[in-house]
Protein backbone atom coordinates (compact mmCIF):
# COMPACT_ATOMS: atom_id res chain seq x y z
CA UNK A 1 0.00 0.00 0.00
CA UNK A 2 1.32 3.40 -0.97
CA UNK A 3 1.89 5.78 1.93
CA UNK A 4 1.93 9.51 1.22
CA UNK A 5 2.85 12.11 3.83
CA UNK A 6 1.28 15.51 3.07
CA UNK A 7 2.56 18.72 4.66
CA UNK A 8 0.91 22.12 4.39
CA UNK A 9 1.82 25.57 5.67
CA UNK A 10 2.85 25.46 9.34
CA UNK A 11 0.28 28.07 10.39
CA UNK A 12 -2.70 26.89 8.34
CA UNK A 13 -5.00 24.11 9.61
CA UNK A 14 -6.26 21.63 7.05
CA UNK A 15 -9.95 20.92 6.49
CA UNK A 16 -12.83 21.44 4.12
CA UNK A 17 -13.79 24.72 5.81
CA UNK A 18 -10.36 26.29 5.41
CA UNK A 19 -10.00 29.24 3.03
CA UNK A 20 -6.53 28.66 1.58
CA UNK A 21 -6.33 27.01 -1.83
CA UNK A 22 -3.30 24.92 -0.87
CA UNK A 23 -5.10 23.57 2.19
CA UNK A 24 -8.19 22.72 0.14
CA UNK A 25 -6.10 20.89 -2.47
CA UNK A 26 -4.29 18.97 0.29
CA UNK A 27 -7.67 18.07 1.81
CA UNK A 28 -9.00 16.81 -1.53
CA UNK A 29 -5.89 14.68 -2.08
CA UNK A 30 -6.14 13.25 1.44
CA UNK A 31 -9.80 12.32 0.93
CA UNK A 32 -9.11 10.93 -2.53
CA UNK A 33 -6.29 8.68 -1.33
CA UNK A 34 -8.35 7.30 1.55
CA UNK A 35 -11.24 6.50 -0.83
CA UNK A 36 -8.80 4.52 -2.97
CA UNK A 37 -7.42 2.52 -0.07
CA UNK A 38 -4.08 4.32 0.16
CA UNK A 39 -2.53 5.45 3.42
CA UNK A 40 -2.69 9.22 3.75
CA UNK A 41 -0.80 10.88 6.59
CA UNK A 42 -1.16 14.63 7.09
CA UNK A 43 1.15 16.81 9.18
CA UNK A 44 -0.87 19.88 10.14
CA UNK A 45 -1.65 22.18 13.10
CA UNK A 46 -3.95 21.07 15.90
CA UNK A 47 -7.61 21.47 14.96
CA UNK A 48 -7.12 20.12 11.44
CA UNK A 49 -9.66 17.64 10.10
CA UNK A 50 -8.41 14.94 7.74
CA UNK A 51 -9.67 11.69 6.27
CA UNK A 52 -6.39 9.85 6.84
CA UNK A 53 -4.10 9.96 9.86
CA UNK A 54 -3.30 13.32 11.41
CA UNK A 55 0.07 14.08 12.98
CA UNK A 56 -0.64 17.38 14.67
CA UNK A 57 1.43 20.03 16.39
CA UNK A 58 0.46 23.09 18.46
CA UNK A 59 0.36 26.64 17.13
CA UNK A 60 0.06 29.52 19.56
CA UNK A 61 -3.15 31.53 19.03
CA UNK A 62 -3.09 35.30 18.64
CA UNK A 63 -1.17 37.76 16.48
CA UNK A 64 1.27 36.14 14.06
CA UNK A 65 4.78 37.54 14.17
CA UNK A 66 8.16 36.09 13.25
CA UNK A 67 8.51 34.46 16.67
CA UNK A 68 5.22 32.62 16.22
CA UNK A 69 6.25 31.58 12.71
CA UNK A 70 9.58 30.21 13.93
CA UNK A 71 7.96 28.16 16.71
CA UNK A 72 5.35 26.77 14.32
CA UNK A 73 8.03 25.74 11.82
CA UNK A 74 10.04 24.00 14.54
CA UNK A 75 6.94 22.14 15.73
CA UNK A 76 6.14 21.16 12.15
CA UNK A 77 9.65 19.81 11.56
CA UNK A 78 9.39 17.71 14.71
CA UNK A 79 6.01 16.35 13.58
CA UNK A 80 7.43 15.39 10.18
CA UNK A 81 10.29 13.57 11.89
CA UNK A 82 7.81 11.69 14.10
CA UNK A 83 5.77 10.63 11.09
CA UNK A 84 8.79 9.43 9.13
CA UNK A 85 9.99 7.46 12.14
CA UNK A 86 6.61 5.79 12.63
CA UNK A 87 5.67 4.95 9.03
CA UNK A 88 7.54 3.82 5.95
CA UNK A 89 6.61 6.73 3.69
CA UNK A 90 6.86 6.42 -0.10
CA UNK A 91 6.70 10.17 -0.82
CA UNK A 92 6.35 13.46 1.02
CA UNK A 93 4.10 15.99 -0.70
CA UNK A 94 4.70 19.54 0.55
CA UNK A 95 2.36 22.46 -0.09
CA UNK A 96 3.58 25.37 2.04
CA UNK A 97 5.28 28.56 0.89
CA UNK A 98 8.17 27.87 3.27
CA UNK A 99 8.51 24.16 2.51
CA UNK A 100 12.29 24.50 2.17
CA UNK A 101 12.55 25.01 5.93
CA UNK A 102 10.82 21.71 6.60
CA UNK A 103 12.48 19.44 4.04
CA UNK A 104 13.26 16.02 5.55
CA UNK A 105 16.77 14.57 5.32
CA UNK A 106 17.71 12.96 1.97
CA UNK A 107 16.12 9.58 1.41
CA UNK A 108 12.38 9.77 0.89
CA UNK A 109 11.32 11.49 -2.37
CA UNK A 110 9.72 14.91 -1.98
CA UNK A 111 7.23 16.65 -4.28
CA UNK A 112 6.68 20.34 -3.54
CA UNK A 113 3.66 21.94 -5.20
CA UNK A 114 4.10 25.66 -5.79
CA UNK A 115 0.70 27.17 -5.08
CA UNK A 116 1.82 30.82 -5.11
CA UNK A 117 3.44 33.12 -7.68
CA UNK A 118 7.02 31.97 -8.38
CA UNK A 119 8.39 35.39 -7.42
CA UNK A 120 7.11 34.85 -3.86
CA UNK A 121 9.53 31.97 -3.32
CA UNK A 122 13.23 32.47 -2.55
CA UNK A 123 15.40 31.92 -5.66
CA UNK A 124 17.10 28.88 -4.13
CA UNK A 125 13.79 26.98 -4.33
CA UNK A 126 14.45 26.54 -8.04
CA UNK A 127 17.94 25.08 -7.61
CA UNK A 128 17.54 22.62 -4.77
CA UNK A 129 20.41 20.20 -4.29
CA UNK A 130 18.50 17.66 -2.20
CA UNK A 131 18.26 14.38 -4.16
CA UNK A 132 14.84 13.18 -5.34
CA UNK A 133 13.19 16.55 -4.77
CA UNK A 134 10.69 17.68 -7.37
CA UNK A 135 8.65 20.81 -8.01
CA UNK A 136 5.36 21.24 -9.82
CA UNK A 137 3.04 24.14 -10.61
CA UNK A 138 -0.76 24.33 -10.72
CA UNK A 139 -1.23 26.16 -14.03
CA UNK A 140 0.50 26.84 -17.33
CA UNK A 141 0.69 30.55 -16.51
CA UNK A 142 2.47 29.88 -13.23
CA UNK A 143 4.85 27.40 -14.86
CA UNK A 144 5.77 29.94 -17.54
CA UNK A 145 6.62 32.49 -14.83
CA UNK A 146 9.21 30.23 -13.21
CA UNK A 147 12.85 31.21 -13.78
CA UNK A 148 14.69 29.74 -16.77
CA UNK A 149 16.23 26.39 -15.98
CA UNK A 150 13.84 25.60 -13.14
CA UNK A 151 13.54 21.84 -12.73
CA UNK A 152 9.83 21.09 -12.85
CA UNK A 153 7.65 18.06 -13.34
CA UNK A 154 4.50 18.71 -15.41
CA UNK A 155 1.94 20.98 -13.78
CA UNK A 156 -1.30 19.59 -12.35
CA UNK A 157 -4.33 21.86 -12.49
CA UNK A 158 -6.39 22.26 -9.35
CA UNK A 159 -9.87 20.82 -9.06
CA UNK A 160 -13.00 21.11 -6.92
CA UNK A 161 -15.66 18.59 -5.72
CA UNK A 162 -18.22 19.19 -8.45
CA UNK A 163 -21.01 16.95 -7.16
CA UNK A 164 -20.87 18.34 -3.63
CA UNK A 165 -21.33 21.92 -4.84
CA UNK A 166 -24.85 21.50 -6.19
CA UNK A 167 -27.52 22.98 -3.92
CA UNK A 168 -31.22 23.80 -4.45
CA UNK A 169 -30.89 27.49 -3.65
CA UNK A 170 -32.95 30.28 -5.19
CA UNK A 171 -30.93 32.83 -7.17
CA UNK A 172 -30.78 36.27 -5.63
CA UNK A 173 -30.02 39.68 -7.07
CA UNK A 174 -26.69 39.99 -5.34
CA UNK A 175 -22.98 39.48 -5.83
CA UNK A 176 -20.54 37.40 -3.79
CA UNK A 177 -16.82 37.66 -3.21
CA UNK A 178 -14.96 35.10 -1.07
CA UNK A 179 -11.46 34.46 0.15
CA UNK A 180 -8.73 35.34 2.58
CA UNK A 181 -9.12 39.00 3.54
CA UNK A 182 -5.72 40.51 2.81
CA UNK A 183 -4.28 43.31 0.61
CA UNK A 184 -3.27 41.15 -2.34
CA UNK A 185 -6.82 39.82 -2.80
CA UNK A 186 -8.12 43.35 -3.45
CA UNK A 187 -11.62 42.89 -2.05
CA UNK A 188 -12.07 46.64 -1.68
CA UNK A 189 -12.18 46.73 -5.50
CA UNK A 190 -15.10 44.29 -5.48
CA UNK A 191 -16.98 46.46 -2.99
CA UNK A 192 -16.37 49.54 -5.14
CA UNK A 193 -17.45 47.78 -8.35
CA UNK A 194 -20.64 46.51 -6.74
CA UNK A 195 -21.44 50.03 -5.52
CA UNK A 196 -20.96 51.46 -9.01
CA UNK A 197 -23.14 48.73 -10.51
CA UNK A 198 -25.83 49.32 -7.89
CA UNK A 199 -25.97 45.65 -6.89
CA UNK A 200 -25.73 44.36 -3.30
CA UNK A 201 -22.67 42.28 -2.43
CA UNK A 202 -21.76 39.84 0.33
CA UNK A 203 -18.07 39.51 1.19
CA UNK A 204 -17.02 36.43 3.11
CA UNK A 205 -13.67 35.25 4.36
CA UNK A 206 -11.15 34.88 7.15
CA UNK A 207 -9.19 37.78 8.58
CA UNK A 208 -6.11 36.00 9.85
CA UNK A 209 -4.21 37.63 12.73
CA UNK A 210 -1.36 38.99 10.63
CA UNK A 211 -0.91 42.71 11.38
CA UNK A 212 -1.01 43.67 7.69
CA UNK A 213 -4.23 41.68 7.13
CA UNK A 214 -5.98 43.23 10.11
CA UNK A 215 -4.85 46.71 9.04
CA UNK A 216 -6.19 46.13 5.52
CA UNK A 217 -9.55 44.99 6.87
CA UNK A 218 -9.75 47.97 9.22
CA UNK A 219 -8.74 50.67 6.70
CA UNK A 220 -9.97 49.37 3.33
CA UNK A 221 -12.90 47.05 4.01
CA UNK A 222 -14.74 48.38 7.05
CA UNK A 223 -15.12 51.97 5.72
CA UNK A 224 -16.79 50.61 2.58
CA UNK A 225 -19.39 48.48 4.35
CA UNK A 226 -23.01 49.56 4.48
CA UNK A 227 -26.49 48.11 4.13
CA UNK A 228 -25.80 46.91 0.56
CA UNK A 229 -22.15 45.93 1.00
CA UNK A 230 -21.94 43.48 3.86
CA UNK A 231 -19.14 41.43 5.40
CA UNK A 232 -20.43 38.05 6.56
CA UNK A 233 -17.19 36.82 8.12
CA UNK A 234 -15.61 33.41 7.77
CA UNK A 235 -17.84 30.91 5.98
CA UNK A 236 -17.73 27.13 6.26
CA UNK A 237 -18.31 24.68 3.44
CA UNK A 238 -22.11 24.65 3.56
CA UNK A 239 -22.39 28.43 3.81
CA UNK A 240 -19.94 28.87 0.94
CA UNK A 241 -21.92 26.47 -1.24
CA UNK A 242 -25.12 28.36 -0.50
CA UNK A 243 -23.54 31.74 -1.31
CA UNK A 244 -22.04 30.54 -4.57
CA UNK A 245 -25.34 29.02 -5.72
CA UNK A 246 -27.46 32.05 -4.83
CA UNK A 247 -25.21 34.70 -6.36
CA UNK A 248 -25.84 36.51 -9.60
CA UNK A 249 -22.08 36.52 -10.12
CA UNK A 250 -18.86 36.01 -8.18
CA UNK A 251 -16.26 38.78 -8.23
CA UNK A 252 -12.52 38.03 -8.08
CA UNK A 253 -10.67 41.34 -7.76
CA UNK A 254 -7.15 40.06 -7.06
CA UNK A 255 -4.34 42.33 -8.17
CA UNK A 256 -1.57 39.72 -7.89
CA UNK A 257 -0.83 37.01 -10.47
CA UNK A 258 -3.07 34.26 -9.12
CA UNK A 259 -1.73 30.82 -9.96
CA UNK A 260 -5.24 29.33 -9.94
CA UNK A 261 -8.62 30.08 -8.36
CA UNK A 262 -10.65 27.45 -6.56
CA UNK A 263 -13.38 30.03 -5.91
CA UNK A 264 -13.76 30.63 -9.65
CA UNK A 265 -13.94 26.88 -10.30
CA UNK A 266 -16.47 26.40 -7.51
CA UNK A 267 -18.62 29.26 -8.77
CA UNK A 268 -18.71 27.85 -12.30
CA UNK A 269 -19.60 24.41 -10.93
CA UNK A 270 -22.61 26.12 -9.32
CA UNK A 271 -23.58 27.70 -12.64
CA UNK A 272 -22.51 31.15 -11.44
CA UNK A 273 -20.54 33.40 -13.81
CA UNK A 274 -17.27 34.95 -12.65
CA UNK A 275 -16.10 38.52 -13.16
CA UNK A 276 -12.36 38.75 -12.54
CA UNK A 277 -9.41 40.98 -13.21
CA UNK A 278 -7.40 39.80 -16.19
CA UNK A 279 -4.30 38.68 -14.30
CA UNK A 280 -2.26 35.57 -13.64
CA UNK A 281 -3.96 32.27 -14.41
CA UNK A 282 -7.52 33.62 -14.22
CA UNK A 283 -7.78 33.72 -18.06
CA UNK A 284 -7.11 29.96 -17.98
CA UNK A 285 -10.23 29.48 -15.86
CA UNK A 286 -12.70 32.19 -16.88
CA UNK A 287 -13.66 32.10 -20.56
CA UNK A 288 -14.36 35.73 -21.37
CA UNK A 289 -17.89 36.17 -22.69
CA UNK A 290 -18.77 32.50 -22.11
CA UNK A 291 -18.45 31.71 -18.40
CA UNK A 292 -17.80 35.22 -17.17
CA UNK A 293 -15.88 38.36 -17.98
CA UNK A 294 -12.23 39.37 -17.66
CA UNK A 295 -11.73 43.04 -16.88
CA UNK A 296 -8.91 45.47 -16.25
CA UNK A 297 -10.22 47.87 -13.62
CA UNK A 298 -13.08 48.66 -11.25
CA UNK A 299 -15.13 50.51 -13.86
CA UNK A 300 -14.93 47.59 -16.29
CA UNK A 301 -15.89 45.24 -13.48
CA UNK A 302 -18.97 47.36 -12.74
CA UNK A 303 -19.94 47.35 -16.42
CA UNK A 304 -19.46 43.56 -16.65
CA UNK A 305 -21.75 43.03 -13.66
CA UNK A 306 -24.58 44.46 -15.75
CA UNK A 307 -23.91 41.83 -18.44
CA UNK A 308 -23.73 38.62 -16.43
CA UNK A 309 -27.43 37.98 -16.99
CA UNK A 310 -26.67 37.42 -20.69
CA UNK A 311 -24.53 34.37 -19.93
CA UNK A 312 -25.80 30.78 -19.94
CA UNK A 313 -25.51 29.32 -16.44
CA UNK A 314 -25.75 25.76 -17.68
CA UNK A 315 -22.76 26.47 -19.93
CA UNK A 316 -20.80 27.40 -16.79
CA UNK A 317 -21.65 24.01 -15.29
CA UNK A 318 -20.73 22.18 -18.50
CA UNK A 319 -17.30 23.82 -18.58
CA UNK A 320 -16.72 23.10 -14.89
CA UNK A 321 -17.63 19.43 -15.31
CA UNK A 322 -15.27 19.10 -18.25
CA UNK A 323 -12.29 20.90 -16.75
CA UNK A 324 -12.34 21.41 -13.00
CA UNK A 325 -13.21 18.15 -11.25
CA UNK A 326 -11.27 17.23 -8.11
CA UNK A 327 -11.29 13.56 -9.09
CA UNK A 328 -9.28 14.32 -12.22
CA UNK A 329 -6.78 16.29 -10.14
CA UNK A 330 -6.41 13.41 -7.66
CA UNK A 331 -5.84 10.89 -10.46
CA UNK A 332 -3.11 13.05 -11.98
CA UNK A 333 -1.33 13.43 -8.66
CA UNK A 334 -1.53 9.71 -7.98
CA UNK A 335 0.03 9.02 -11.37
CA UNK A 336 2.74 11.56 -10.56
CA UNK A 337 3.37 9.88 -7.19
CA UNK A 338 3.85 6.57 -8.99
CA UNK A 339 6.29 8.12 -11.42
CA UNK A 340 8.33 9.91 -8.77
CA UNK A 341 8.63 6.86 -6.55
CA UNK A 342 9.71 4.69 -9.49
CA UNK A 343 12.94 4.59 -11.41
CA UNK A 344 14.00 7.52 -13.55
CA UNK A 345 11.47 10.14 -12.54
CA UNK A 346 11.10 12.59 -15.39
CA UNK A 347 12.02 16.22 -14.86
CA UNK A 348 11.42 18.91 -17.44
CA UNK A 349 13.42 22.12 -17.37
CA UNK A 350 11.71 25.24 -18.56
Topology at a glance:
Layout: E1 3-7, H1 21-35, E2 39-45, E3 53-57, H2 66-86, E4 91-94, E5 110-113, E6 133-136, H3 140-144, E7 151-152, H4 162-165, E8 175-178, H5 187-197, E9 201-204, H6 211-221, E10 229-233, H7 237-246, E11 249-252, H8 262-269, E12 274-277, H9 282-285, E13 292-295, H10 298-305, H11 313-323, H12 326-340, E14 348-349
Parallel strand pairs: 1-2, 1-4, 2-3, 4-5, 5-6, 8-9, 8-11, 9-10, 11-12, 12-13
Antiparallel strand pairs: 7-14
Give a verbal description of the structure.
The structure is a single chain. The chain is of the alpha/beta class and 350 residues long. Helices cover 35% and strands 17% of the residues. The chain has helices at residues 21-35, 66-86, 140-144, 162-165, 187-197, 211-221, 237-246, 262-269, 282-285, 298-305, 313-323, 326-340, and strands at residues 3-7, 39-45, 53-57, 91-94, 110-113, 133-136, 151-152, 175-178, 201-204, 229-233, 249-252, 274-277, 292-295, 348-349. It has a 6-stranded parallel beta sheet, sandwiched between helices. A 6-stranded parallel beta sheet has the order 10-9-8-11-12-13, with helices on both faces. Strands 7-14 form a two-stranded antiparallel sheet. The longest helix has 21 residues, at 66-86. The chain is globular. 46% of the residues are buried.
Biggest sheet character: 6 strands, parallel
* Order of strands in the sheet with most strands: 3-2-1-4-5-6
User: What is the terminal-to-terminal distance?
Assistant: 33 Å
Unreliable residue stretches: 343-349
Overall mean confidence score, pLDDT: 93
For the CA atoms, what is the radius of gyration?
20 Å
Q: Percentage of helical residues? A: 25-40%
Q: What overall geometry do the principal axes of the alpha carbons give?
A: globular
What string gives the helices and strands in order? Answer: EHEEHEEEHEHEHEHEHEHEHEHHHE
Percent of residues in beta strands? 15-25%
Number of strands: 14
Number of helical stretches of at least 4 residues:
12
Structural class comes to alpha/beta
Amino acid sequence: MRTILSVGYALAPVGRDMVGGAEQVLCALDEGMVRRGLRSIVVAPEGSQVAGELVSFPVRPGPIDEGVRAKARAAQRAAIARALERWRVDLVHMHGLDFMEALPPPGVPVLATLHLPPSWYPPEVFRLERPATYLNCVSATQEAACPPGAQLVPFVSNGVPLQKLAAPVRRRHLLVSLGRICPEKGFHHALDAAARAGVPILLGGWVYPYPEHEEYFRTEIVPRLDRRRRFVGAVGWLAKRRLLNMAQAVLIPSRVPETSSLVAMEALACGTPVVAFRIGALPEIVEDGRTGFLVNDVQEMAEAIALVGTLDREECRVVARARFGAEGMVEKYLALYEELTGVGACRASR
